[in-house]
Design goal:
Layout: E1 31-39, E2 42-50, E3 61-70, H1 77-83, E4 85-86, E5 90-94, H2 98-115, E6 126-130, H3 145-153, E7 171-172, E8 175-176, E9 179-188, E10 191-201, H4 216-227, E11 245-251, H5 257-265, H6 267-273, E12 283-290, H7 318-338, E13 343-344, E14 350-351
Parallel strand pairs: 5-6, 11-12
Antiparallel strand pairs: 1-2, 2-5, 3-4, 3-12, 7-8, 9-10, 10-11, 13-14
Length: about 350
């Protein structure tokens, strides 16, 4: 069954042209996959984003990372920041499984390198996280190599959204959060390029939620409080902006690592459009990569190569990418919520779906 996304409710965030599927995988070569675990009180998972189908360790991608608010436990950001490259797929999971997922991604890359006859002596897996402990018994630490390999083997061009993979147990604005994605097309130099975003949403205070410029969170609070006076299994709300959001941006736009960092910082504008102020207890972590301007390892470089030519957009055109990033982020967040079905928390509380409050 086709998932209903935010546009199916007559809400069209922004004004730019969307990509073919309106997903991060509209960027040629990019794939995404999930492994979802629902076993008793374990309701969690892992999501992987593959920048391409070849060995990224041997031919890294120009990349950037940005931490808006650092309440988080991600791995791999430091080297991405220093070198401006991404040498592994990106994985998303819950807070207490970062180490186990790091191990699994490292093993995956080691096997790829052995296959390609290029032993790897140092690997920098990129792993992001959100804390899903309101819905998932996070201390079980159930995600490991089996689940990561499942996500890799099921990576595709049309990944599911909502309560799947790393978004299985997340909460957004007190409603059910999850995985969401969107894309935008920009024209520069007479050619079209794609900017795609995928989010793991787990942030926001209910009262602050804004949808299509409307303060919907306040209306949701009033509606639920009227409906549930004296009832058991009450709707859960978030009073504070806490919990985190992981945002992954992919593009085929030729940019430098410095330009890419400028672009991914605008993902914060997309988050703010949904109402959040990115509070103390929330980690807003952004990772971006471009499939243009790859940085081949020493093994793949021509002998005696000491200079490398790069193509890059001029700064006066970068506003188009800024707007595309902000719009795609806003839509990805809303897609993550509207595609996620109502879920019960560990204390019996209801995390309702945004779809319920949008009507048909």
């Amino acid at each position: 069954m086709m998932q209903k996304r935010i546009r199916d409710y007559g809400i069209y965030p922004g004004r730019m042209k969307q990509g073919k599927r309106n997903k991060i995988t509209d960027v040629p070569g990019v794939l995404a996959g999930h492994c979802t675990v629902r076993d008793g009180e374990s309701r969690t998972g892992v999501t992987v984003i593959l920048p391409g189908t070849d060995n990224a360790f041997l031919n890294p991608y120009t990349a950037a990372a940005y931490v808006h608010n650092g309440f988080g436990k991600s791995a791999g950001l430091m080297q991405i920041e220093e070198l401006g490259t991404l040498e592994t797929p990106i994985a998303l999971t819950n807070t207490l499984n970062v180490g186990r997922v790091w191990d699994a991604v490292a093993d995956h890359v080691l096997r790829e390198c052995e296959r390609d006859g290029a032993p790897a002596l140092s690997i920098n897996p990129a792993v992001g996280e959100c804390n899903d402990s309101r819905i998932n018994r996070i201390s079980s630490r159930i995600i490991g190599q089996e689940q990561v390999e499942y996500a890799f083997s099921h990576a595709c061009e049309d990944p599911e959204e909502g309560a799947v993979g790393a978004g299985t147990g997340t909460v957004c604005y007190g409603l059910k959060g999850g995985i969401g994605t969107a894309s935008r097309v920009v024209e520069i130099g007479g050619r079209e390029y794609t900017i795609g975003v995928l989010v793991q949403s787990n942030f926001g205070a209910t009262e602050d939620l804004v949808v299509d410029g409307k303060a919907l969170g306040r209306e949701i609070l009033k509606k639920c409080q009227r409906e549930e006076t004296g009832k058991e299994g009450k709707t859960a709300f978030s009073e504070q902006d806490k919990g985190s959001i992981m945002s992954i941006l992919a593009t085929d736009l030729p940019v430098t690592a410095r330009q890419l960092k400028r672009i991914i910082r605008r993902l914060g504008a997309g988050i703010a459009r949904t109402g959040a102020y990115m509070g103390h207890g929330s980690g807003e972590v952004m990772i971006g990569f471009t499939t243009a301007n790859r940085v081949p390892s020493v093994k793949l470089r021509r002998e005696k190569e000491e200079l490398r030519m790069l193509a890059a957009i001029p700064e006066e055109t970068i506003n188009r990418a800024f707007l595309a990033a902000a719009e795609a982020e806003e839509e990805a967040v809303l897609n993550s919520m509207v595609t996620a079905a109502e879920t019960q928390g560990l204390q019996g509380e209801r995390y309702r779906s945004l779809a319920e409050f949008l009507g048909e």
